[in-house]
Write a structure and sequence with these properties.
single chain, mainly beta, Immunoglobulin-like, 5-stranded antiparallel β-sheet, 13 strands, 11% helix, 34% strand
Length: 177
């Protein structure tokens, strides 16, 4: 009889396993990855100050964006052909070294230009940029751009003598397009 009990216990065990364990089906799965490529950060360098040189009281003086060595110059390096926004922060006056006197400076909508490798440099640039408002352009095929800016100072007839200075800031950002 012990043999029969063993068979009964074994059969009950198999039945319990069949009731407790759910039906197992064939399963398949797949995995994907989330990926992103971060493009190189933009590098913006001020290469040359906007230099008016000697200015006489009461006599306005202009420096053209194409005047080599006197026009302000910035270089930009980034991702090849990337779309960027270009935005100048311009002073409305230059401050005297004593911080008490100011001289007016002004800019027009055609006072800046750029070279992206498709033009002829500073004297025949690829295009004009309006420094008074943001612009959207593309970096060149090598990921580079040079920007030049000119302007005009307007000293008063009683302008205090000495050195004057003001900051011109260029902000450049990728648009994501």
């Amino acid at each position: 009889m012990p043999h029969r009990n063993q068979k009964a216990v074994g059969l009950i065990g198999v039945l319990l396993i069949m009731l407790v364990v759910p039906n197992i089906k064939a399963q398949e799965y797949a995995t994907i990855h989330a990926t992103a490529t971060v493009i190189p950060a933009l590098v913006v360098i001020g290469e040359n100050d906007l230099i008016f040189g000697t200015v006489f009281p009461g006599v306005d003086k202009t420096v053209d964006k194409a005047t080599v060595g006197f026009a302000g110059e910035f270089s930009i390096q980034g991702n090849n052909l990337a779309e960027i926004t270009i935005d100048f922060t311009l002073p409305d006056s230059l401050m005297h070294e004593d911080s008490l006197s100011y001289m007016r400076i002004s800019f027009t909508d055609i006072d800046a230009s750029f070279e992206d490798g498709t033009g002829g440099g500073q004297s025949a640039p690829a295009g004009i940029i309006n420094p008074l408002g943001p612009s959207t352009e593309n970096l060149g095929a090598a990921g580079q751009m040079t920007i030049w800016i000119g302007g005009m100072v307007e000293p008063g007839i009683t302008q205090t003598g000495g050195d004057y200075i003001g900051d011109i800031t260029l902000t450049v950002a990728y648009t994501g397009s």
